[in-house]
Amino acid sequence: MPNVPESPSERAQTPVARRSLSRRWLVAAIVASALCAVVIGLEFANLLSLPASAGDNERRSPEPRQSSLTVAVARTPGGPGEWSNWARIIKALSDELDTPLTVRYLSKEDEAAKVIAADEIDIAFVCAHHYLDLTERGVCDGVATPIINGSTMSRAQLVVRAADTATGIDALAGSVVAVSDKSSLGGYAYLSYLLQQDGRVATDYFSELRLGETQEQNLRDVLSGDARATVINSAQSGSLDLSGIRVIEQSVPFGCPPVIVRSDMDPELRARILNILVGLDMETLLPPGSAIEGFEKLDPAEYEFAVELRGACGHHADE
């Protein structure tokens, strides 16, 4: 880099003065970052319009608390770029129901089904795996499936860097592969499914099999050369830059992560929830460019291949 000569005022500053100025700039930057974080947090909270705590309600009004519903968010399609849009959808659902919704974010996907089954969860946004488990156990019923980029269906895709010469999973023997954990049908399950077609086992086939990171982190590892391949889900990758990767295997379509409700919910309330979701005007509700295009009534037939993937991953057998 070329040397830039100092101005007369810069040459006049002592080392102590320069350090003092640097510290002031550092403090200013930290304060500005903290303020931005607070503003973003408040804006997101306002967007959700979550109900106040019991203590707040008691202080504000002596009237009885309005009944509320609890919504668990374990998996939503569309990727990180759609998180704020799902908040808008939940708020719209609350407004149309005229009922406060208490939102619980279930960050540990492998424990989400247990939490939904054990706690009083009324509505849940879940992955296909949890939908299968919870409906088969009689805990929840499927209600609606999101339409992502024109379809209620998604695919699991095995990808490598665009310059990689691999044309299928057979070329990856002895390679480093990074995928999401066993509770994700779009990660370890699809990898296991592909290998099991020829009687092979994922843990023995690769030189290293990394489990548990997010789809985004696994993609970064592939693009940086830290891993040779990963598995992504087409419904989850809409907001990601995929220009540097290439699909070498992909599954048959199966249903996107759906919306479910507890099985003993009042039928009239269940019907209202479905009608509200299907009737949402996404063009008005969401900003331009969103991959979320609406909802359709859930069709169990769309999740038939998801049953095969769940069997391949072995996670279901361990529950």
Written account of the structure:
This protein is 42% helix and 19% strand. It has helices at residues 8-12, 15-48, 54-60, 83-97, 109-118, 128-136, 188-196, 202-205, 215-224, 267-279, 282-285, 304-313, 315-318; strands at 69-73, 101-105, 123-125, 140-148, 153-154, 156-161, 176-179, 208-211, 229-233, 245-250, 254-255, 259-262, 292-297. Helix 4 links the parallel strand 1 and strand 2 (101-105). The longest helix has 34 residues, at 15-48. The model is unreliable at 1-23 and 25-66 (pLDDT under 50).
- What is the radius of gyration computed over CA atoms, rounded to a whole number of angstroms? 24 Å
Query: What is the CA-CA span between the terminal residues?
Result: 59 Å
| Biggest β-sheet description | 6 strands, mixed
Question: Please, how many helices?
Answer: 13
Quaternary state of the chains = single chain
Trace the largest sheet across and list its strands.
2-1-3-12-4-13
Helix content: 40-55%
- What integer is the average pLDDT? 81
- How many beta-strand elements? 13
Strand content: 15-25%
Structural class: alpha/beta
Q: What is the H-and-E element order?
A: HHHEHEHEHEEEEHHEHEEEEHHEHH
As residue ranges, the low-confidence spans are: 1-23, 25-66
Principal-axes geometry comes out as globular
